[in-house]
Structures are given as C-alpha cells and as structure tokens.
Amino acid sequence: DAKTTQPNSMESNEEEPVHLPCNHSTISGTDYIHWYRQLPSQGPEYVIHGLTSNVNNRMASLAIAEDRKSSTLILHRATLRDAAVYYCILSHIQGAQKLVFGQGTRLTINP
Amino acid sequence: DAGVIQSPRHEVTEMGQEVTLRCKPISGHNSLFWYRQTMMRGLELLIYFNNNVPIDDSGMPEDRFSAKMPNASFSTLKIQPSEPRDSAVYFCASRGRGQRYEQFFGPGTRLTVL
Predict the structure, then answer these.
(1) Nearest CA in chain B to A47
(2) What are the pLDDT digits (tens) for A64-102?
(3) Would the CB atoms of A43 and B108 count as touching at under 8 Å?
(4) Of A49, A100, A104, the CB nearest to B101
(5) pLDDT value at residue B26
(6) Which residues of B touch A91 (CB under 8 A)?
(7) Are A68 and A27 in contact (CB under 8 A)?
(8) Average pLDDT estimate for A13-29
(9) The pLDDT value given to residue A94
(10) Separation of alpha carbons A97 and B31, rounded Å
(11) Residue closest to A71 by CA, chosen among A39, A10, A29, A25
C-alpha cells in the first residue's frame, strides 16, 4: 500500500478554518484518497474521499494537488467537536475495501 | 439505524482465558471488518469478510486469533488463549453494497488481559 505522511499534531482556534495536509508522493493513478477521523474514545468515522478532483461534502472539503502527490483536508469553520485524530489513507480502486491507517494528525481546537 | 453494535464494551480477563468479541453489522451491509488499536501499533486491520466469506486474514496476528461470520448479521473474534499483549481496543466496521468506500465503525471493545 502506498504510504502517506501527515504532521503528528496541529492546533487551531474555534470558528477558524483548518487545513490538514497529507503527502502521498508514491500515489498511483488508481489510488483513492480517503480521510477518516477518530474522536476521543470512539471508532473512526468517514469524512471524505476523492480521486483527482476536489470534493466537498457537509463535513469538509478535499483539495487534491494537480500531480496528486499531496492533498489537504479543509474544515471550513472548526468547532470544539472537530478535535480528533485525522487519518489520510490511500486505497487502490480494486482493493478499496482495505484501509491501512497511519498515525494520523491529532487536531486540537482552542476555544 | 442503531449502527454497528459491539459487545462487550469492556472485557477484563486473565492470561490463558478464552475471549470472544461480538459484532452486529448494520442491517443490509455485506462487508465486515475487524480492527485492533494499540498505542504502539495504531489501528490495524485483522480480517475482513464479504458476504460472510473471509477475504483477507493476513492481519490476524497468530493462530490464537480466529474470526467467524456465520450469517450476515453476526460475527465473532475469538482469542484463545489470551495473552497480556492482546490488550487493545478492538473495532468492528461494516460497509454496504452501494457505499464502495465508506466504512462504519462500531464503538469498540476495550480488552484488558491481566
């Protein structure tokens, strides 16, 4: 599985936008980019995924670099409830069932 | 929908005892996954099933671990005999046919082996 690199931790303030980066320089053309997050004492939850184009949903936006070697998860207006560990995961189209979680980015939101 | 249900939520046992963790996936979902999370190793996929059939068990640590899915609404993960290094949070997740990528996770079972 292709590897992703994320900062260990980030900090932001409530009601401000948050940009969570992910590097995946060895991504292949058939790898999807997934983001999951894990709130304290809970199981992971799906946030968003994309292949080549930027994606938006009710939770976040995913900006994918033109060369696909990096992506950024954008939380437009962070709340205290967004404090979690955010995981960026690559998964092959055919093997999209298998998610390999890295260490993720621990996001702290200051009130 | 009740979401993925796991039981028990907490289990404390002694080394050498058999442990059985249970999972009820979301109704209608046809894929089921077992993960383990520890501080040292993070979240690891142990095994997953499609339509009740095990597809990939390469993450199962050793023969002491076994998983079954006798029907579409129930799965078990058994550890026999348990060891202190098996202490972890075990998550079950399921995915539906139309949702190619989104996995829904249960609340987890925190296992402590003394």
Answers:
(1) B102
(2) 999 999 999 999 999 999 999 999 999 877 655 778 899
(3) yes
(4) A49
(5) 95
(6) 101
(7) yes
(8) 95
(9) 65
(10) 8
(11) A25
